[in-house]
């Protein structure tokens, strides 16, 4: 069922809010005197789904008892879209303008609704496995020009498969988690030997990540046509990277310690259903991809993405305005490729898009590209310059879709880079 785009809630929602009644994202929250439990958000109000369930609002949907009284969404999203979809629709119904069931019962409202300022958001899922793709052609081309050969910027495989690597899930953390500058080995081109110390080139990578809500069996492949059945929703993903550590360590097995000291996600999982009005065609793929990677219909989404840097005690300053629609490889192709060899996927797995850069200079999704390997530093309002991220800089990423009056967003991912631990 398509959600009514004109529907309004009896909870006030500003025109610039990411969370109208058409969004209904899912997250895990806690209040000062309550345990972790599942929630959704409308405007600036967090809705306690466990409290709604205790008041009987979901009776009739046959949900397992206590399904929202958990510190991860994994058990809920594992119920499948035949359950999660009606739950979303019922929530929209409860909060729609003309519905008095909760609206006119202050004692129930007090149990269910919390101002966002009185809540703390937690990791929405327990991430089992994490894959990071490399699916923006502009990003891959820019990196190839900087580090390899401008005439052959893309590796020969790039247009034939969505390149990716298996990352580490233990260090995926929720927005608001601050990350210490990592230490490690680096070696400059002119030095004979590596040195050890804090990274000098801490960077962000602007990404979206999708989360799977359905498992597949070892040995089975998920075709592109079925891939979206396995995808519950998406979050913004700041894949922090230490470029100097990366350059020295990555040969021949790929990213390792430069990429696993912290990746930070936004707290609300925005469902594919909520993103439905924002589907757009992807770039034309030339040469044609192999049959198992061909996909019908539109699997790209028009999500506007901003990256801002806020130096200590300063205003935030935008350094990037990109869009998820630029992705060369779409999420259905990524999941089809992930499973084509029989690799199984689980509920709660996370799949990063890779840095999302676009074709214009202000659409570059990493400091590596924005400052072009340090040759074009960014001027900050206080007169300082940025080639990479400084200690005590806060990185903010925001994402939202807009179509006429409808705005659906992800909220934000905020993380501060602290000095290296002594
Ligand atoms: Mn990445």
Account of the protein in words:
The chain contains 11 helices and 26 strands. With 422 residues, the chain is α+β, with helices and mostly antiparallel strands. It folds into 2 domains: 96 residues, Fumarylacetoacetase, N-terminal domain (SH3 type barrels); 289 residues, Alpha-Beta Complex (Fumarylacetoacetate hydrolase, domain 2). The chain is globular and about 70 Å long. It starts with 26 loop residues before the first strand and ends with a strand. The model has no long low-confidence stretch (mean pLDDT 97). Manganese (II) ion (MN) binds next to loops.
Mean pLDDT: 97
The gyration radius over C-alpha positions equals 22 Å
- The shape, in one word, is globular
Question: So how many helices?
Answer: 11
Beta-strand share of residues: 25-35%
- What is the CATH architecture annotation of the largest domain? Alpha-Beta Complex
Multimeric state? single chain
Care to count the β-strands?
Answer: 26
Helix content: 10-25%
Q: CATH top level of the largest domain?
A: Alpha Beta
Question: What would the CATH topology of the largest domain be?
Answer: Fumarylacetoacetate hydrolase, domain 2
Amino-to-carboxy terminus distance = 55 Å
CATH superfamily of the largest domain: Fumarylacetoacetase-like, C-terminal domain
Global structural class:
alpha+beta
Total tally of structural domains = 2
């Amino acid at each position: 069922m398509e959600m009514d785009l004109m529907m309004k809630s009896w909870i006030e929602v500003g025109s610039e809010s990411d969370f109208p009644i058409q969004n209904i994202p899912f997250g895990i929250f806690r209040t000062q005197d309550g345990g972790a439990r599942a929630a959704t958000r409308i405007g600036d109000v967090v809705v306690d789904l466990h409290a709604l369930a205790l008041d009987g609002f979901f009776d009739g949907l046959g949900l397992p008892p206590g399904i929202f009284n958990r510190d991860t969404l994994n058990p809920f999203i594992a119920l499948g879209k035949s359950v999660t979809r009606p739950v979303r629709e019922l929530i929209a119904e409860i909060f729609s303008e003309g519905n008095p069931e909760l609206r006119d019962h202050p004692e129930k409202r007090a149990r269910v609704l919390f101002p966002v300022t009185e809540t703390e958001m937690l990791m929405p899922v327990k991430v089992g496995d994490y894959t990071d793709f490399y699916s923006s052609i502009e990003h891959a081309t820019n990196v190839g020009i900087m580090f390899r050969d401008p005439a052959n910027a893309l590796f020969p495989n790039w247009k034939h498969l969505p390149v990716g690597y298996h990352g580490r899930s233990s260090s995926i953390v929720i927005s608001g988690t601050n990350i210490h500058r990592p230490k490690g080995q680096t070696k400059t081109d002119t030095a004979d030997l590596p040195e050890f110390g804090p990274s000098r080139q801490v960077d962000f990578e602007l990404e979206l990540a999708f989360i799977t809500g359905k498992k597949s069996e070892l040995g089975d492949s998920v075709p592109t046509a079925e891939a979206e059945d396995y995808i519950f929703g998406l979050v913004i993903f700041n894949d922090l990277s230490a470029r100097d550590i990366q350059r020295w360590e990555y040969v021949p097995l790929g990213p390792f310690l430069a990429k696993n000291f912290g990746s930070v996600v936004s707290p609300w999982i925005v469902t594919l259903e909520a993103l439905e009005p924002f589907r757009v065609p992807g770039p034309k793929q030339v040469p044609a991809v192999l049959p198992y990677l061909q996909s019908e219909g539109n699997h790209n989404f028009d999500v506007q993405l901003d990256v801002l840097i806020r130096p200590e005690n300063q205003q935030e300053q935008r350094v990037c305005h990109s869009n998820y629609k630029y992705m060369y490889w779409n999420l259905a192709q990524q999941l089809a490729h992930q499973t084509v060899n029989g690799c199984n996927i689980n509920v709660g797995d996370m799949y990063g898009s890779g840095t999302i850069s676009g074709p214009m200079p202000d659409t570059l999704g990493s400091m590596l590209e924005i400052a072009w390997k340090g040759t074009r530093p960014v001027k900050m309002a206080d007169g300082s310059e940025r080639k990479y991220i400084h200690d005590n800089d806060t990185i903010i990423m925001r994402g939202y879709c807009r179509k006429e009056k409808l705005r659906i967003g992800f909220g934000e991912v905020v993380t501060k880079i602290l000095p290296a631990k002594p």
